[in-house]
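Checklist before submission:
- one chain only
- standard amino acids only
- sequence pasted in full

Submission:
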Amino acid sequence: MTPKSMAGSADVLLRCLREAQTNYKSQREMAHRIGVAPATLNRWLKGKKVPNPSLGELESIADELDMPVADLVSANGPPPKLRVVAATIDGAKLRRLLRKAADAIEHVADELPEGD
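Returned file contents:
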């Protein structure tokens, strides 16, 4: 990754974190849920430090924000519709909704006749 693309990735990650911040009672809760120290998250959000999470932290953040790691590090970020949904639906509710949808799809797939 070039320094320019790394900076772009940090911008995307920071934008996603800021958008998700409203889903938490406090920065401390958010930091705990995404797996980083509260002071680190605070420095990221205030722009005092460029986000540079480890791969494990990045996976934890992506899991908590319910999005692929690739969306957090791509220059374009997550698709706009995904950001709108994530911003308007509580993360836990969204995960339950997606799991129900996946279960329904699996049920329908099980009912399909075997094909070649």
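Reviewer check: The chain has one domain: 3-89.
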